[in-house]
Specification:
The chain is mainly beta. The protein is built from one helix and four strands; from the N terminus they run E-E-E-H-E. It has one domain: Ubiquitin-like (UB roll) (Roll).
Length: about 70
């Protein structure tokens, strides 16, 4: 199964989404991550790694921004 990896900018003052960008794909089999295609390493920085439990759906990695 493929799970898309997105980075999401969230505006601090309004808690609203400013932008969302797909940055990679996590591949899983039987609920376990088998491959991560993420050139900038956002998934790894967030703690996702091959051999661990896969996300339930797509992965959204949030970053808080001023505006």
């Amino acid at each position: 199964m493929n799970h898309k990896i997105y980075t999401v900018e969230i505006v601090i003052s309004t808690d609203s989404e400013k932008s969302k960008t797909q940055v990679g794909i996590i591949t899983s089999a039987d609920g376990i991550i088998t491959h991560i295609s993420d050139s900038a390493g956002q998934a790894s920085a967030a703690g996702w790694e091959v051999g661990s439990a896969a996300p339930n759906g797509d992965l959204f990695i949030g970053t808080m921004v001023e505006s």
